[in-house]
Amino acid sequence: MEPHGKPLSSPHRAATWRWSITGLLLLATMINYMDRVTLANASERVTREFGLDNEQYGHLELAFGWAFALGSLVFGFLADRLRVHLLYPAILAGWSAMGVATGWADGFGGLLICRTLLGFFEAGHWPCAVKTTFALLDDKERTLGNSILQSGASIGAILTPQVMKLLMTDQVGSWRGAFIVVGAVGFVWVVLWFLMLRPGDLPVEPKRSDGGLRELGEILVSGRFWAVALLIMGAQTVWHIYRVWLMKFLQTGRGYGERAALDFNSVYYMATDVGCFVAGGISLWMIRGLGCSPQGARRMVYAGACCLTSASLFIPMLGKGPLLLGVILIIGMGALALFPCYYSFVQELSAHHVGRLTGILSMWVWAVTSPMHSFFGRMADAVADPAQRYDQGLVIAGLAPWIGVLALHLLWRNEKPSRDAH
Predict the structure, then answer these.
(1) CA-CA distance, 85 to 193, in Å (whole number)?
(2) Residue 236 in contact with residue 369, Cβ under 8 Å?
(3) pTM of the model
(4) 140, 204, 254, 353: most buried by Cβ count inside 10 Å?
(5) How far from 119 is each of 32, 150, 377, CA to CA, in Å?
(6) How far is CA 188 from the centre of its chain?
(7) 3-state secondary structure (DSSP) of residue 396
(8) Average pLDDT of the chain to the nearest whole number
(9) Nearest in space to 280 (alpha carbons), one of 397, 413, 133, 404
């Protein structure tokens, strides 16, 4: 990164090309989430076929999350050392293959292995994608660029229920075909990547001296790093609790049928996409129109998103009906709006360790939050009334992002930037 904040990509490349590649990153995130949320959308069928209780279903997400944590560390360091031009498509092909293999799982053990390897490879998407937006876009554009990147999550989650409605029949095991079809889509993206980019478009970070490692160590013990670490812990909690448990809440907790729950799941992720784009747009408007600093705009947008997720407080008071669904849509808008702010804060920590820091933070947050799914499932199994089984956990998840607001206030404001921060 140059001192004046311009992108690292080839100077002769037009802005339209840079935003086109950002759109390609959106597609990668979309595929990432389609492979990830297929299990959540088929959760009732999978648990019925394999005879799993809620806690065992939570174990599948625990295995995914801890593998994601390990993959985040591995690929975060590789993204700063190898050419993203080659590393990124290799990672995407890896998780796509695991998505296809899930469709052939012959029992809980096979499903657990596939889910574990899926998590490991999917983790590589984020260091590579954030590294790419860092190379392509300047500081003022990055929150919007990261919004576009992150919005692929909701687009994938919107499409997946509809794909599954088309592919699943009355036979319980028809969920398998959906995994195979969704997993195969990733190989198309790999072809597009090589058609749109040349090796020199995303330059490799130069090999650093031991001083670079010392700088990384200083960042890891800084208040800024731990502010961002706590921020993503809160954001991750609300996003993934709702991703994993929303279908079960709608079907078991509120009595919606499978098709109605699938349709609402698509609408929910449309709302998250709106929230994500609005977050990026408001941030850019505050910077260019109101003269706010990029960091100040991100703080305010993040706090506003927390207000939306706090609507979870109303869930226990609401039964089946449009008011409940409206509250869940508001929560979804806030949940995804948190993430572009987070990515921009990571990029602000250091110009030379973007991939490593993204990987380390992903490892941290997945390792810490993944056990929540097993705990959530155990807590749900302990509630006798199915109508109230998931309410308490959803309320707590919606309030979790306020941890990030408090952490930024206490740990970031008096911290000096690292020597290589831009």
Answers:
(1) 8
(2) yes
(3) 0.71
(4) 353
(5) 10, 17, 20
(6) 21
(7) helix
(8) 84
(9) 133
Give first-to-last CA distance, the chain, whole Å: 8
Predicted confidence band of residue 13 (pLDDT cuts 50, 70, 90): low
Fold of 15-412: Growth Hormone; Chain: A; (1.20.1250)
Whether the per-residue pLDDT at 368 is higher than 60: the answer is yes
* DSSP collapsed to 3 states, 222-264: CHHHHHHHHHHHHHHHHHHHHHHHHHHHHHHHCCCCHHHHHHH
| Residues 372/378/383/384 CA torsion (nearest 10 deg) | 150
Q: d(Cα 26, Cα 136) in Å, to the nearest integer?
A: 14
Token pair of 69, please? 């944590």
**pLDDT tens per residue, range 236-266:** 999 989 988 898 899 989 999 988 998 998 8
Helices (H) and strands (E) in the chain, counts: 17, 0
199 touches 88 (CB < 8 A):
no
Give, in order, the Cα–Cα distances in Å from 365 to each of 114, 154, 228, 230, 231: 21, 20, 10, 8, 10
Dig out the tokens for 163 from the structure: 């794909």
Residue 209 tokens read as 């001296």
Amino acid letter for position 184: A
